[in-house]
Amino acid sequence: MLARRNRIRYTREDWLVDIVVYIIVGVVFFITSYPFYYSLVISLNNAQDTARGGIYFWPRMWTFASYSSFFGDATWLFGLLVSVARTIVGTVITVMFTMMVSYGLSDRKLIFRKGYMGLIIFSMYFSGGLIPYYMLLRSIHLLDSFLVYVIPSALSAFFIFIALSFYDGIPGELRESGMLDGASDLVIFIRIILPISLPLVATIAIFSGVGQWNAWFDSAFFVKNKGLRTLGYLLMETINQANVPTNAQAALQSMAGSKVSPFSIRVTAMMISVIPILCIYPFLQRYFITGLTIGSVKG
Amino acid sequence: MKRNRLIPILLAAVMAMSAVPVAVGAAEASSDPVVLDVFLNHTWYPTDKFEGIIPETITEKTGVKLNATRAVDANQLGLMMASGDLPDIIFTDQELSRLSNDSLCYSYTDLIAQYAPEWKPSEMAIANATASSQDGKYYFLYSHAYTAEEYANATSGFPMSSSLLYRGDIAEELGFPADKLNTMDDLDALYAKVHETYPDMEVLVYGPVLNFGYFDIQWALTGNTSWVEKDDGTYVHTVASENYYNARKKLNEYFRLGYINPDSFAYDESTADGLIYTGGSFSYENATQGYAATFTEMGKAYNPDLKILEMKPLGEDAAYRLVHLGWAATFISKACKNPEAAIKLMEYLFSPEGARLTMWGREGIEYTLSEDGAPIFSDEWVEATKDEALFASKYNTNFYFGTTGLTEAIGRTAHLSAEYQDVYDLMRQKIVAAPWFGLAEPKDPNSDPFIQTEKLKELKENFDARLVMAESDAEFEKIYAELLDAARKIGLDSLTEYMNAEITRCKALYE
Amino acid sequence: MTGSAMGGRKPSLPQRLWRQRTMQLFALAGVAFLLIFSYAPMTGLLMAFKDFRFEKGFSGIFTADWVGLKWIREFVMDYNFSQLLRNTIVISVLKMICTFPVPILLAIAINEVKVSPVKRVVQTVSYLPYFISWVVVSGLCIQFLSSTGVVNTAMIKLGWIAKPLNLLSGKQYFWGLAVFTGIWKEMGWWSIIFLAAITSVDQAMYEAATIDGAGRLGRIRYITFPSIAPTVTVVLILALGNLLGGGLGGSTFEQSFLLGNTANRETSEIIQTYSFRMGMSKGRYSYATSIGMLQSIISVLLVFSSNAVAKRVSGRGLF
Q1: Same domain, B340 and B293
Q2: A51 in reach of chain B (CB within 8 A)
Q3: Which residue from A minimizes the CA distance to C231?
Q4: Interface of chain C toward chain B, CB-CB under 8 angstroms
Q5: Are C111 and C126 in contact (CB under 8 A)?
Q6: Is residue B150 in a domain?
Q7: In this structure, are B194 and B269 located in the same domain?
Q8: Domain of B174: which CATH number?
């Protein structure tokens, strides 16, 4: 298809668009990749030496010390396993549940739809705070369990709206044709809607997957069992540990303790959390890059 | 050769130690240690493992082992308190008043009477802690407490405070060796010379915490209280004091002379640290006391001549005002599975033996006491201090729930060479102990004086930078007037009245 | 609504519900979930009007004394309220205007790149800053934007400026800093949503348009743009609802907290950071909750009104 279009004359307009597009893309590439690359270099350079400045493209004093300060003991291995598990389980649950709920809501003839939507919107902006939430989790026995990582995150109003806008773009005939064939809503959902929703699935998966992967808050507040701590929690713990507190007396006490380089620690923590995502993203990416042809599915 | 002397002591100590548990009670020695969960409400806490020589010795002596969880977020403790899901022990420097509460924690008053009647904390220590509770009982004792006499008689050690580090090698080169630096005017002259000779150097950089602490000390101010005693014996809030006005005026002068880069307000800890030992700055103001030697070592890799020194107090009115009551508190929660073991652990950690153990290691092994009561550390210990990670994993001096301020101060500085010690002798002469300021600080976090105090702290912080960066004298005056105006809106006048009464009352308690 | 006998045989409510039972069950599952995990804890909102003291336990939410609008009054009467309000509004609006169009443009640009490896690489790289936490961003800003940093050095070498700019501490630069770092950090991430919408456009439509003689601009204008318009509307309304939080420009709270410093606080302190400093971090949950609630009300008003406008203008809204 691409080759065929290329054979069609390349007009001046085409060139103009190309130039503008490549300038935009080039600038974006530079300003987003360089700071990231720079962080990688800093994480591999001796922390004391970094303070001298002048490092731009290549580490001056190679060291893996920043990384080894993270992977001190077996806790980290557990943390990694827990994070992988919650990312996989949590993302699958979120994607399935969101797709299902929003498919239900996508039917404009749904009775009480307005009421449902109102409830969803309010839930986005009002929150009772941490204390009642904790009490809720306690009363339904989610505290100190793996489920607290994957259940409360199963649905987000934001994902519902993204999904609804996607379903809106699906031609109504698709569902109608299914109905004419006598298929139930459930069958239509699974056989017809899901297969053409892959870009949507990929979007929600990456958004919720990244959230799951980085999560530390629930691990800090809702889990006491040290074996259930996530990688995000351990990273956050190490980062915060390197921070000098702002309270005067505490600052003095902490300075009496040790002198570490918070910047190197933070940058390294970031690298540790991003690299796995970088490895997985290309597999999801093709759903955004190569378009789907709805017609072919229909036919 | 020192080691030869140590061996008999070491043997004696081992024998003595193995005898102790037997004497205390065979039952305790044979049974497994009691494991207590402790929440360390300090995100920066250097360790969360109860391992290493010192913690193991504590377990040996008390039969208690700690399973520690370090805070990741400042709100964790609040949630624990609201939900009632508290661990056995809480080590915190926040929320002392809210935790001093019969429904959340056991009072030391009751626990000591029931399980440790031998333990007699000093009356002042009890009064200081009782000030945080509503029911006349005390629920903790301040760690790192001190008395005026202790510091007056001390021959080494200095409480942690803000400091000014400077490049001793450059100062010397420009004709200002340490003994020629004696007044603020000397410092002005030195700064002028540095700025002229090294125009690219940032003359004065300050860290992100406790901005200007060293300079405040030269005008007898401290970050630990907002109150200053006037000549007529009344008390005035820092922002309304002449000391504050003069201190900021001085820094504004430095700013206008180009000694201070405004970006200094934006630097994080690593950047500010890095500038001093890599040659980017001449002097560095932060809570960096005792780091002169460390930074010198770090900087030598790039400049073998580099020497970083700590500035002695230069101001006419310089005073290291010790106004705090101590530092943190250890609470024994109502959920504690063994309050008896917990209070006995605290009794041990507050005993002279326990206090020293947490900071200095085992007597006779890690240190021996000199004639004037200061520790002489073993070679092994001194060697280990050079490698932070090794020192931490080997000795783990961090479990200091009950030690005294002086014990900690000595442990931190006693191993430094004389070159760095001298300045502490000068500083110790300027100590003014006035704990009644700390006692008078509003304790109830829901009360108006407390909230006003916090708001005024925030206000001062915001205006500090504006005053320092004023472009002219007229602008300085205008900003200062604005500051006083805003302070009055927050309630400065009523708070001043309240605090005058409180400080006077508390001072009387100490006399 | 009740299914009258008129107009043929309109089914009754129970009948209609039964007919759409699968769809109803799907939707109800979601609603039930929200009732448990969102609405049950909302009892906590009561503390906005009470003198809740957390040390007395959770039940204080119900039993503490009513104080009405005491906390809001305290906040509004505060000496720096007008400054906080100004900063909050200016930063929010500036960020909304400047950051919203960027991910859309980027998505369209990426879609127009026809060389597949370039497309993939740019897309992957552009969302990387999303993963850099604001703590690290503030560290990077010091490295790049300080008076001796790369940016100032380059501008001096190019002769644009004579003296380095105090980008980090100058109060006149903070708003620009917030907008720029917001765009930089979030544009790639949000472009994912728009790219997903673009890629779900039927490719056959492009081919048909090409055959009809539409140029590339024409195809962008008449096919790409209309096809992502519903997504743009939805994201815009959601972003407006999150106006005070930072829209598509990342968390304004974290920006103000971490890029702000005592030197630029006149322009960087916003309502959220102040309420955090004076409320949450001092254990004053009631105070923090009531300020938070004020913001929630503003957010909901914004969402409903922008939804109404969107419906009138484009016939399509969020709900």
Answers
A1: no
A2: yes
A3: A165
A4: 51, 53-58, 78-80, 138-139, 142, 146-148, 166, 168-170, 261-266, 269, 277-278, 280-285
A5: no
A6: no
A7: yes
A8: 3.40.190.10
Q: What is the Cα–Cα distance from B406 to B146, expressed in whole angstroms?
A: 7
Chain A positions in Cβ-Cβ contact with residue C217 (cut-off 8 Å):
13, 17
Please state the domain extents for chain C. Answer: 78-278
What is the rounded distance in angstroms from the CA atom of residue B230 to the CA atom of residue B226?
A: 13
Provide, as residue numbers in chain C, all residues whose Cβ is less than 8 Å from the Cβ of A167.
none
By C-alpha distance, the chain A residue nearest C186 is A32
Q: Are C145 and A275 in contact (CB under 8 A)?
A: no
Tell me the chain B residues in contact with residue A138 when contact means C-beta distances shorter than 8 Å. Answer: 83, 85
E strands present in B287-357: 308-310, 320-322, 329-332
Domains in chain A with CATH codes: 11-63 (no CATH), 71-259 (1.10.3720.10)
Q: Does B40 share its domain with B99?
A: yes
Chain A residue with Cα closest to C194: A288
* Closest-CA residue to C209 (of C227, C194, C189, C185): C227
For residue C277, the chain B residue with the least C-alpha distance is: B458
B83 Cβ under 8 Å from any chain C Cβ: yes
Q: Which of A52, A241, A246 lies nearest to residue B209, judging by beta carbons?
A: A246
d(CA C252, CA C260): 11
- Structural domain span for residue B75: 2-145+327-403
Q: What is the pLDDT of residues B233-260, one digit of tens each?
A: 999 999 999 999 999 999 999 999 999 9
Q: What is the mean pLDDT of residues B56-71?
A: 93
A139-146: long-range contacts, CB 8 A cutoff, minimum separation 24: A140/C36, A142/A222, A143/A222, A143/A223, A143/A224, A144/A222, A144/A223, A144/A224, A144/A225, A144/A228, A145/A223, A145/A228, A146/A82, A146/A85, A146/A86, A146/A228
Q: Is A264 on the interface with B (CB under 8 A)?
A: yes
* Radius of gyration of the CA atoms of chain B, in A: 24
Residue B68's H or E segment, with its range, is: strand B64-70
Nearest to C192 among A160, A203, A273 (CB): A203
Q: Which residues of C touch B104 (CB under 8 A)?
A: 55
What's the mean per-residue pLDDT of chain B? 88
Strand-pair category, B431-433 with B375-377: unpaired
pTM for the structure as a whole: 0.88
At residue B99, the pLDDT reads 95
Spatial distance between the Cα atoms of A226 and C239, rounded to a whole number of angstroms = 38
ipTM score of complex: 0.86
Cβ separation B398–A257 shorter than 8 A = yes
Question: Per-residue pLDDT tens for C265-277?
Answer: 999 999 999 988 8
Positions of chain C with pLDDT lower than 70, given as ranges: 1-8
| Buried-exposed string A25-35: b where 16+ CB fall within 10 A, e elsewhere | beebbebbbeb
> CA A41 from chain center: how many Å?
24
Q: What is the dihedral of CA C22, C27, C28, C32, to 10 degrees?
A: 150
Element (H, E) at B367: strand B367-369
Give the residue on A whose Cα is nearest the Cα of C116: A289
Using CB atoms, list chains with 3+ pairs below 8 Å to chain C: A, B
**How many angstroms away from the CA of B86 is the closest CA of chain A?**
11
Mutate to test the interface with A, among C1, C18, C23, C25 (most CBs of A within 10 A): C23
Helix (H, G, I), strand (E, B) or coil at B84: coil
Topology of domain C78-278, per CATH? MetI-like fold (1.10.3720)
